[in-house]
Amino acid sequence: MKTVTNTSSREAPFPLEISQLNAVESVRRVGPLSRSDIAERLSYSRSKITVVVGDLIDTGILEEVGDGTSTGGRRPRFLDFKADFGYVVGVDLGASSLDIAIADFKGHILDRKYMPSDVRDGPDAILALIRNIIIDRLDYLDIPPTKIYGIGIGVPGPVEFSTGLLIAPPIMPGWEAFPIKAFFLETFPSAVVIVDNEVNVMALGELRGGAGKNEENFLFVKIGTGIGCGIVCNGQIYRGSNGCAGDIGHICADQNGTTCHCGNVGCLEAMAAGPAIAGLAAKAALARNSAILAKYLEIRNGELTAEDVGAAASEGDRVANEIIRDSGRMIGEVLASLVNFFNPSLILIGGGVSHIGHQFLASIRRGVLHRSLPLSTRHLRIDTSPMGPDAGVNGAIALALEHVFVAAS
Amino acid sequence: MKTVTNTSSREAPFPLEISQLNAVESVRRVGPLSRSDIAERLSYSRSKITVVVGDLIDTGILEEVGDGTSTGGRRPRFLDFKADFGYVVGVDLGASSLDIAIADFKGHILDRKYMPSDVRDGPDAILALIRNIIIDRLDYLDIPPTKIYGIGIGVPGPVEFSTGLLIAPPIMPGWEAFPIKAFFLETFPSAVVIVDNEVNVMALGELRGGAGKNEENFLFVKIGTGIGCGIVCNGQIYRGSNGCAGDIGHICADQNGTTCHCGNVGCLEAMAAGPAIAGLAAKAALARNSAILAKYLEIRNGELTAEDVGAAASEGDRVANEIIRDSGRMIGEVLASLVNFFNPSLILIGGGVSHIGHQFLASIRRGVLHRSLPLSTRHLRIDTSPMGPDAGVNGAIALALEHVFVAAS
């Protein structure tokens, strides 16, 4: 029997019944609604909704605003969500950075802190750091920790979503099965704490407030040190049977390719992610195939990054351009398989490597079009994520908000 | 503006209101329910459900059965669906066969007719044939055509599900955009007519009454002349943005492979489907690499099938076994990409080629395990479809039933 879950085990933030939670969640999602709007959405009777809304106004979660247009009878009054009744925290925990934001119940960011960090420092150090930053910023905002009703966290590793535990994370030594939720509940006892993989969180950010807002089925592909994919299916984040859907970094991109750290040959990540791009460029520099790359290698003391290769390409370096084109093509060809299978309407490309030049996106597009069926690309858009580095923290806030007013299962 | 849709444009079969449709659909899906069960499921008030159910009993769709266990007050009476109030037809239209079944409202098959046919004869001939068979069987069963309230049809080509029209079907000349629904409405004016791609229909068959019954996320892979995939996502058939999700036959299986009829190189279908298996075997027979295959080639007058290769393999032919193993491995490796991406809990292998021997399934399994991540295969089962050739017609009946009691959009 599972006892840990991703949503329960918190103290009830406000003793709300299911019908009250449903009513609040309707207003949160849709915006100001009249009593009869809410009643209709939830199929509640007029008398029931009057009681439910009355209680919520007494609690201070909902408030009456403005006057609706009359349709003959009494003018309906609208009910809105009280933004400052409570707050949530969004945490985007990257491999080498931390991005933490505090937002009100309407998702408006009140404070945000970004800093470099190393996830390999382990959960004790990193989580204490996050907690201290949150407490410091709450102090500054004059918000008591008990007013934090939700914490959403994106992490760079595979998460069993139902429990919020990391499962064999390759780049997060020491984090396996660490009780992240319990850690935060100690300091923020009213909060629901939700942990998810970072690409799912980024996809959620784009779904709720970005380029994915009107899309039912889309992919968010993050290309950085690794390559991962957040999947939106029928307007919801899809996590698969074990919560590891979207792990596309180890799909075979080249049957004659290099060996990946996972032991297989030609994995997309090993062939086309940031380190592969940087590695090929360093090799070309050392072989004296590119003067510009050799210059960068010298400036960087022998350690190139994908961004350096992008810079060299924008200076017109042929070799750098070729490396970027090859990487984009391989990513595009793998995405083509997924397009044939999943038939999305949109693919958003994010992550650090997504900004290394127009050539990269163009090559991805060409790779997809080259190997996809015409019907499946007829209405397909492929773009860089317009939310960019904000997708993670925005998604983490959305993740928290979506679980505050949901009955614990 | 679209005017054709996959569900509307029929005469209302029985003038039911939305609340009545909802009540009937609850009982159809779940089985006998008390009035308060239905009320709770639909969040209807006690007085509303009394009226709704009363009307449905008057119409003859629901009937009272047995007595429930009392929980203190009056003993609740259960309401059940009247199986013989109406009937549906399921049609599995294959490339070279027709499978037609008539079922009652509970999905029990009353009559079934299977026959070879050639879809290339075109829609006029084939649809008239289907209609005549249905009329003949209804006559035999003494059921008037107006009692047919739903017709579900699986077809071997891409379907725009919202309209039920075929879009550029490669093996169905003359069927593009043919108004299949309108054709059947002429003879069966009370019916909702739903057309879908055959693999989606097969996946639905397994989802409702087969091995997929308790699975939220699974794949049904049909391997025959082509290779296609039905996707079940969160307990529902997933069709993608253009309705062409699951078109996996043209995913690249071998970058140095043979050229496919689509113009690309190494498509899974060109490398591993029935014709590829038969073609490789014929080549080996002509090159005198296998005496057993040469024997089959002679018996078959120079035209081998995948089934012949399976028979040769079961006679111990090394070359036949190798061909089957290679095909299975390639299918498995492509499925591995989809497993990493979609993380299903089950893959069902169906279609004619799925029965060419244990070696085939074993090779598919090996291919998947070889290239998938451990977390995504931890609970993954890969099996041949236990429903086998019945999946299509069972799914077509389920497709019809699921649309009878749904309000036309």
Structure summarized in a few sentences:
The structure is a homodimer of 409-residue chains. Helix content of chain A is 41%, strand content 19%. By secondary structure, chain A is an alpha/beta fold.
Which SSEs are present, and which pair or pack?
Two copies of one chain form a homodimer.
Chain A: H1 18-30, E1 33-34, H2 35-42, H3 46-59, E2 62-67, E3 77-81, E4 87-93, E5 97-104, E6 109-116, H4 123-141, E7 148-155, E8 159-160, E9 165-166, H5 180-187, E10 192-197, H6 198-209, E11 218-223, E12 227-233, E13 236-238, H7 268-272, H8 274-286, H9 291-299, H10 306-314, H11 318-342, E14 346-350, H12 358-371, H13 374-377, E15 381-384, H14 391-404
Parallel strand pairs in A: 4-7, 7-10, 11-14, 14-15
Antiparallel strand pairs in A: 1-3, 2-3, 4-5, 5-6, 8-9, 11-12, 12-13
Helix pairs in contact in A: 1-2, 1-3, 2-3, 6-14, 8-9, 8-10, 8-11, 10-11, 11-12
Oligomer: homodimer
Q: What structural class do the secondary elements of chain A suggest?
A: alpha/beta
Radius of gyration of chain A: 24 Å
Sheet with most strands: strand arrangement of chain A: 6-5-4-7-10
SSE order of chain A, as H and E?
A: HEHHEEEEEHEEEHEHEEEHHHHHEHHEH
CATH class (first level) name of the largest domain in chain A: Alpha Beta
Look at the structure and give the mean pLDDT of chain A.
Answer: 90
User: How large is the share of residues in beta strands of chain A?
Assistant: 15-25%
CATH topology type of the largest domain in chain A: Nucleotidyltransferase, domain 5
What is the helix content of chain A? 40-55%
Could you name the ranges of chain A where pLDDT drops below 50 across 5 or more consecutive residues?
1-5, 7-12
Outline of chain A = globular
Give the total of beta strands of chain A: 15
